[in-house]
Amino acid sequence: MANLNFKHLRYFWMVAKAGSIARASERLHLTPQSISGQLREFEEALGVQLLRRAGRGLELTEAGQRILGYAEQIFSLGEEMLAALRDTTQSQTVTFRVGIADSVPKMVAYRLVEPSLRLDEPVKLICREGSLANLLGELAVHRLDMVIADRPVPENLNVRAYTHFLGASGVSILGAKTLVDKSSPSFPQGLDGAPFLMPGAEVALHARLLRWFEAERLSPRIVGEFDDSALMLAFGQAGAGFFAAPTAIERQLVRQHELVVVGHIESVRDQIYAITNERKLSHPIIAAVCRFAQHDIFGAATPAAPHRTRQRSSSG
C-alpha cells in the first residue's frame, strides 16, 4: 500500500467504536452498504481482516485491535489540534493519561502523579482507575501513557509493556482510635483475634500479609477483603478493623483520617511500579514522575511514632 486512506481509516474507527455498521452509518450519515464497501476496500489495501461477525454484531480481529490503537492516537491528535486552534491558550498543553490500579492506595497515586502538574510545561492530567488487566489493555492500544500498579505485568497477560520499579515501603498497621482504645496494647500479639481488613486476593500485599501472620503465629479475624484501597480505608476509618497501609503515606493517613498507628512491619514491603510502552523512559513527564517517586517518596519514607507499639522482629 503506497498511501494510507484516512477516510477509510475513519470509517473503520467509527464502526469499531459504534460496535456495528448500522450505528456507524447513523453517525456518519451514510448508508450501511456504502460503509461496508469502504471497509472491504480498506481491508484489501491493508491485506488483513479487521472485523468479523460475532453474533448479531461485529468484533475486532487481532489486527483490527492494533489498527484501532493507531487510529485512536491519530484522531485524538486531530481533535487536540482543532481544540488548540480554537483556544490558543491551550496550544502548549500536553495531555498525560495515567491508569491507576484499584489496588494502589489513592494517596500513593496522588503523590506519584501530582508532580506532573508542577512541571514547566503545562499538563492536562487524565486519570483512569480500574483493574490492572483492563488498564494494561488500554495501555496496549495507547489510550494510556502509563499505568501505576502494585505488581509487574502478570505473565499470563499477553501484553507488550515494560515494568519500571518505583520503590518499596514498609507496612504500617493502623486503626481508628475507638478500635485501638479497646484492643490489646501489645503489637503484634494484639492483632491475634482482632478484626482485620485485608486487601483483596488479587492485591500483591494480600499474600505477603498472610505469610507474616503465619510466621508470627497470629490469627486475626478477617472481617472483610477489599480490592479497592479507598473503600478499605473508609471501613478502617469507621472502626471496622485494623488494616495495613504503606509507611510512605502513614503521616498523611494519621493526619487526614484521624487514624492511629499501632505498629510497623518492615519485613513486609509494599511495592509500586510504573508500567509503560517504553523500555527506556524517553517520555519527559513519565521520566519526571519516576524520578520523583524514587528520590522523594520512597527514598525519604520514614514512619511516624507509633501509638502503643512494642515491635518484635518477624521470622517471616
Reconstruct the topology from this structure.
Layout: H1 6-18, H2 21-28, H3 32-46, E1 51-54, E2 57-60, H4 62-86, E3 94-101, H5 106-113, E4 123-130, H6 132-140, E5 146-149, E6 162-176, H7 177-181, E7 195-199, H8 204-216, E8 221-226, H9 229-237, E9 242-246, H10 250-257, E10 259-276, H11 284-297
Parallel strand pairs: 3-4, 3-5, 7-8, 7-9
Antiparallel strand pairs: 1-2, 5-10, 6-9, 6-10
Key structural traits:
316 residues; alpha/beta; Arc Repressor Mutant, subunit A; 8-stranded mixed β-sheet; 24% strand; disordered C terminus
Shape summary: elongated
The proportion of residues forming helix, as a percent range, comes to 40-55%
Widest sheet: strand ordering: 4-3-5-10-6-9-7-8
| Count of beta strands | 10
